Amino acid sequence: MKILFATSEATPLIKTGGLADVSGSLPRTLRHQGDDVRLVLPAYPAVLKKVSQTEILTELQVPGHSGPVRILFAQVPGLQLPLYLVDAPGLFDREGNPYVDADGHDYPDNAQRFAAFCHAIVALALGHADRWRPDVVHCNDWQTGLVPALLSQEWQRPATVFTIHNLAYLGQFDRATFDALQLPAALWSPAGLEFHDNFAFIKGGIAFADMVTTVSPNYAREICQPQLGYGLDGLLRHRGDRLVGILNGIDGDVWNPATDPNLPAHFDANDLTGKAACKSALLQAFGLPERPGGLLFSHIGRLVSQKGADMIVAILPSLMAATETQLVILGSGDPKLETFLRSAAARYPDRVAVRIGYDEPLAHLIEAGSDVFLMPSRFEPCGLNQLYSLRYGTVPVVHRTGGLADTVADASSRALFEETATGFVFDHPDADGLWWATNRAIELHRRPAVWWEKLVRTCMRQDFDWRISAERYRALYRFALDQPAPTPIPEIISQP
Ligand code: ADP
After folding, report:
1. Judgement on whether residues 231 and 94 belong to the same structural domain of the protein
2. Which atom of ligand 1 is nearest to the CA of 166?
């Protein structure tokens, strides 16, 4: 099968979150399994720096943007995937985060930037940019949401799949922007892109794709309910027979404690000795002293309300009342949360350390060197850090939501005894809920070491390799090809 995988970020080229991990590893796994997968990304400077050779395939004029939009074919050493880049002077040639400026504000022209990206993807999808023409276009998140909508207007088109990595980001803009983008007038309807007098890029994917997926089965159910549906739960329920949850995998080449080049020592489920050396290196990196019998907690993530770092700060007094505990945090995001975390760390200089920033090698060392990973996300489409934690024998403490509920089995007495437990799960996303689960981790750690070791080994035995989920995507692509979705019916879709 020929698959064009369209995304606004992909490791190792550019990354702000889990979308990049998925976009780096799913296409590569599919390709190893024999499919002809190609990637298309915006030509950010960070990406162009990694490219060894480019060839201009075509130059387009797209509606809503006055400058040229070029489609390049690029070679990246070691990427193992053919890569198309969309290069539009003035749109993507900005350093740093692809979506926000240095102060963390969305770029004011994001609609123009990603609409141009979508038009270029459509040109590739229809074979207007290269002789290669895909059978399936797999779009990801709002930045590519217009593609299924625009392709639905074509007589002969490839099948379309749209994956929701996080429904909280809709790509919502006003009517004036819709007009400025010169989008087809027919798309301005409740059955199309219109969304409460504005319009949302993500609706183009959800309403028009042949298949809609999200990144865990539980999140697929949750987004069909008002609480996590962001006003799109009616549409998602309507598309229920085309909506599937497929769990993300992890890239075993990048996240493997037995081979990870970011670690000072290696380990696996049979021999955990290297984990102690990683813990020492981690404490040293954060300037914390070693505590005999200590239990080291950690957290990595974007500092936004979704991820619940504020709940971690709220339980700090209780966590610090247990004498053996320490905590390290790595993250960046909301400046208020950053300040809040820094001042919390200053209160417990020997026990708590915070690193504000984005640091990939340090993220690997944290996963390897800590004992317990705190992930109190208020909602979590899939979550990757709990999967990395399991792989690295770092026991996750998670809120029972989205993919966290699908991937972590609570350490009840029975599950511990039967060796099926893989973490501590709580139901109420507040400080009491998080502390209840965290305290159970502390108490288990105080029991004879054999119990903790058993739990760690069960965590490490879990298999979240991409090859399993890649098979599911392949079956879904086939279904989308064999049974294209009918054009949406306005009256039905607009009903709540
Ligand atoms: P999301 O996509 O919502 O940010 P995920 O758990 O799905 O959350 O994926 C987050 C990814 O980003 C993980 O690979 C995680 O290690 C990484 N990450 C997040 N923040 C940082 C940071 N400050 N430094 C290094 N890696 C980070």
Report:
1. yes
2. 3
